[in-house]
Amino acid sequence: MINLVKSDGLAGGDGITIASGSIMSQNAKEKNRFLAAQQAAEAEITILQQLNGKDSEAEVLAVYKELVSARSLSNSIVTFINQNFASAETAVEHTVDEIISMLILLENDYMLQRAVNIEEIGNRLLHHLQRPES
Fold it and tell me: What is the pLDDT of residues 51-67, one digit of tens each?
């Protein structure tokens, strides 16, 4: 619930400020949901790495683990949540789509593969976000 509070402005006029505690708490809830999904995805990848040993799949999983735990990805998603009052799912989808779009524009095979990797990380995060809370 947003509370409107009338206050006197410094320039002599009246102003209205918004006490947005509920919006901030919703943002915090969505941020926490994202961080929990990120941890779950990272744990899942770690288990898959252990099961796959040293094969080529393990190398791909190492890339996934690095990407899912990347601070820049986390910061972008959390910033989107905070600035747009968005759900964690919306923030993940938007951020992943934005990164993929930039990588595709580079028209480089390596960057196209990174785009595929980012898409997979996005799917893993969404999977964990959509799981029922226990």
Answer: 877 777 878 888 999 99
Residue 134 makes CB contacts below 8 A (sequence gap 6+) with none
Enter the pTM of the model. Answer: 0.78
**Distance separating alpha carbons of residues 57 and 34, to the nearest angstrom:** 26
Cα–Cα distance, 11 to 121 (Å, whole number):
50
Which one, of 18, 25, 24, 26, lies nearest residue 2 by Cα?
18
Nearest alpha carbon to residue 99 among 114, 110, 109: 114
Tens digits of per-residue pLDDT, 30-40? 999 999 999 99
- Rounded Cα–Cα distance for residues 121 and 78 (Å): 16
